[in-house]
Amino acid sequence: MSADDIACGSGTIGALRRVGLSWPMLIGAAAFVLVLAAGVVRLDEDIYWQIVTGRWIIAHGYVPARDIFSFTRPGARWIVQEWGAEVLEALVYGMAGWAGLALLAALCFGLTIAYLARFLLARMQPVHALLLTALCGGMMLDYLIVRPHELVWPLTALWVGGLIESSERRRAPPWWLLAVMLLWANLHASFILGLLLAVPIALEAVLGARPAWKPAAGRWGLFLAAALGCALANPQGWRLIVFPFHMLGMPVLARIPEWQPPDLQRPQLFGLWLIGVLGLAFAGRFILPIVRSLLLIGLIFFALQHVRNVSLLGLISPLLIATPLAGQWRREPLARRGAPALDGTVRTPGAAGGRGALCATIVLAGALGIAAVSVRRPRPSAQATPRAAVAALLARRPRARILDDIEFGGYLISRGVPVFVDPRIAVYGNAFLERYYAALELSPGGNIDALLKRYRINAVLLGRPWPLVRWLERSPSWKRVYAGRWAVAYVRARATGS
Q: Does residue 377 surpass a pLDDT of 60?
């Protein structure tokens, strides 16, 4: 047995290095397979309209700028902020169905986790790097949905990690990162976060380059200007830059579950992460430079505002804290005494692997992933797919003008039915959506009779037990044609124009 093997604790572990395996390779492959085998990857209601949009773009050869799906807002401005991802989803679905989309999402998650592990292993002792990777990866699982935001996780990791590495090495960012921004801007509007993060990271790099700060400022300034130019290279132009701010300024977001604050009364890794960070900070064991402190505080603030941002905190925070945390740990007495023995158990396989092992890992993980989706057969949830309710409505009103639950809008679009509303909330605007929710709740501002008359509604399709359901049950003008676990449907008893 070699000295390496003795240090690592076993000949088996030492052999892993000889065959070319690495921790990022193993962790990424394991993450890919496990999320598929456990059924963690979800397909929600948005996937329906996104696939239809992608097919429309492929068929027409351009990105629509006006609404094409609703009968309430026809021709309204539509910022298709994720057109590239929608085309990708349409292509994958056309080739491999729901299983292909689940495989795509799991692949993006696995690649992101592999990059995080590689980034952390280059800065921290392996035992700490792997624990931090597991914790932050777990924070991302709750929002592992087949959506454009998840498909750009690898790009987010590459962008932020590349900028931080350049700052720490006192050099300008590599120009290939601009290709990441160009791709990101055409896949999802979260690219604006990448631009916003680049500014303080550049400031940190310039401040750290003193006294030669002027050349550093010039190089970083040129890179930031080029990055902004790449972000503008999209079908929407400058409108896509302001779109996220417009959407975040809509008060109606508070009514949508994914835009609500996280429920900290429920046990979750986000709460554990907060306790750990605050505990270390209060004990004086976790100190960040001022720029990174402000960035981390900002990410925590956004995660506490919207549950969907917890995944971004899990993705970006380890990139920010790795180097300062590792440096402080190395100065601790405990690190000098007991850490080497503990760390030796995980030091091998290492941070970088061989090509042969990589190819074998890809083949094995791919086979296991395909087997997992073949067994589980992923598909959108029944709660988002009111197939029987829509069939009952259309059987009685083939040209139905449906007042639909917003969660059913995507499925209706996939059936070619014009919708009253759907999850593209920016198309409808805050005022329209507030009136819509007030109508479902029978609030004074809703005026359900006026809404039904204005839009000539002759059918209603709802999922949640809105007060409107009780009103429809009592009204002689409406007849229930379907009632199931996830949906209830009504038609006018004496409909006109149907």
A: yes
